[in-house]
Amino acid sequence: MKKLTVLGSTGSIGTQSLTVAKKLGWGISALAAGGKNINLLEAQAREWKPELLAVMNESAAAELKLRLKDTSVKVCGGAEAVNEAAAMDTDIVLNAIVGIAGLKPTLTAIDAGHNIALANKETLVTGGDLVMSAAAKKGVKILPVDSEHSAIFQSLMGVPDGNPYKILLTASGGPFFGKTRDELKNITPADALKHPNWAMGQKITIDSATLMNKGLEVIEAVHLFGVSPKNIEVLVHRQSILHSAIELEDGAVIGQLGTPDMAIPIQFALTYPNRMPSVAPKLSLTDVHTLTFEKPDTDTFLCLATCIDAINKGGLYPTAANGANEMAVELFLKEKISFLQIGEFVARATEQAVNLKSFTLDDVFEADRLAREAVLSYL
Ligand code: NAD
Ligand code: MG
Question: Is-contact 31 44, C-beta < 8 A?
């Protein structure tokens, strides 16, 4: 039986990964999560009997240790425990942690020689150069779970290495596509948490509403596929049916379509290069009827413009954009700043990033800290 480790097992992607694992008949080596949802973690541990349950929050870990006394599951707490889970013997590590908190576990899993099914895009946005070179050195695969990147990855299968291509990165546009800045002034967290096509964790749902998510995905694509940012075009595609495409030199466009269901990209990252029956519903193109494509509005949605600028500058600018955004989203969800201030603060904090051409992991965490501090100073 194949086995999988899921980091971030209680989240939107984490729980869907377990559904996929069940469909595939796979087992679980280790589970890791933050620890806010103790009941779900207990249920997951009882169902899947992982060798290790790693819980970031120490008091949640202590509580789970008590609750799981009658089982063989080893429970450990803290960041080191999450890294221990990432390193444990397994067939593949699926990283569905949210935010830069996923970076060290990714590097730890690579160091242990594991292939990675990567949902945690912030890993590549903040530490892309370090992660991709560590993966190449170890000869491990980074298999994208993000639906757009999975679509690009699938579209590239069969294209010989070295053939130039352009990426057509699709975006749903989120709940506020077509709105003006004036109309977005009084958006509340509840408004922004309603996504038209996907049910996801809170942070990525806000990122989809600001288009930060698409900015992070441009940066993610640059690292995963080694393309220049100028060869990535973002297209707003409201139906979320074409998950992204590539355009080749002869004008041929190859894309991947499907229902907007993360079970498809999650499963393909696990079964690559093979295909298996999935829990996702099949696509009916006659039901969808119409597919539309439009240009994004980067004057209204500042986050997207900031991310493109950051990856063009390179260095630690993308790390700063990500750190500023993580802080700004947290403040917006607590109703400390407005919806439009997210984009304004991300732009300002990215601007002030230190320009380093080569950097270490410590520099990445320092750039993240400085960007968060900058955002707090704007309050
Ligand atoms: P979520 O908020 O629903 O879940 C996050 C998970 O990470 C939870 O299990 C939480 O306990 C865990 N976690 C948080 N901090 C942790 C830490 N320090 N150590 C260990 N675990 C920790 O988020 P999500 O929507 O599932 O998204 C996860 C990642 O996948 C994000 O990077 C997101 O951008 C990406 N992604 C999500 C979707 C989606 O449909 N939800 C699609 C594409 C990519
Ligand atoms: Mg995506």
Answer: yes
Residue from 97, 217, 219 whose mutation best tests the ligand 1 pocket (most atoms within 8 A of CB): 97
Q: Whose CA is nearest to atom 41 of ligand 1?
A: 200
* Mean pLDDT for the stretch of residues 92-97: 98
Nearest ligand 1 atom to the CA of 35 is 11
Cβ(110)–Cβ(134) under 8 Å? yes
**Closest ligand by atom to 326 CA:** 1
Q: For residues 21 and 143, give the distance between their C-alpha atoms in angstroms, rounded to a whole number.
A: 16
Structure tokens at 268: 């393909």
Alpha-carbon span 108 to 345, nearest angstrom:
32
What angle do the packed helices 302-313 and 339-351 form, to 10 degrees? Answer: 20
For the chain, what are the domain ranges? 3-144, 149-261+287-313
Q: Spell out a b/e string for 238-247, using b for 16 or more CB atoms within 10 Å of the CB, else e.
A: bbbbbbbbbb
Ligand 1 pocket by C-beta < 6 Å: which residues?
Answer: 8-14, 32-34, 36, 56, 82, 96-98, 101, 119-122, 146, 198, 200-201, 203-204, 262
Encode pLDDT of 141-164 as tens digits.
999 999 999 999 999 999 999 999
Confidence label for 346 from pLDDT (cuts 50, 70 and 90): very high
Give the pTM.
0.98
Q: Which CATH architecture has domain 3-144?
A: 3-Layer(aba) Sandwich (3.40)
75 forms beta bridges with 53
Q: What are phi and psi of 295, to 5 degrees?
A: -80, 145
How would you list the strands of the sheet with 27-33, edge to edge? 74-77, 52-55, 27-33, 3-7, 92-95, 115-118, 142-144
| 323-336: pLDDT as tens digits | 999 999 999 999 99
Tell me the ligand closest to 205's alpha carbon.
1
Buried b / exposed e over 141-163, threshold 16 CB at 10 Å, is ebbbbbbbbbbbbbbbeeeeeee
Q: Distance from the CA of 11 to the center of ligand 1, in angstroms?
A: 5
**H or E segment at 42?**
helix 38-48
Ligand closest in space to the Cα of 240: 2
Gap from CA of 61 to ligand 2 centroid (Å): 31
Asked if 118 contacts 144 with a C-beta cutoff of 8 angstroms, the reply is yes
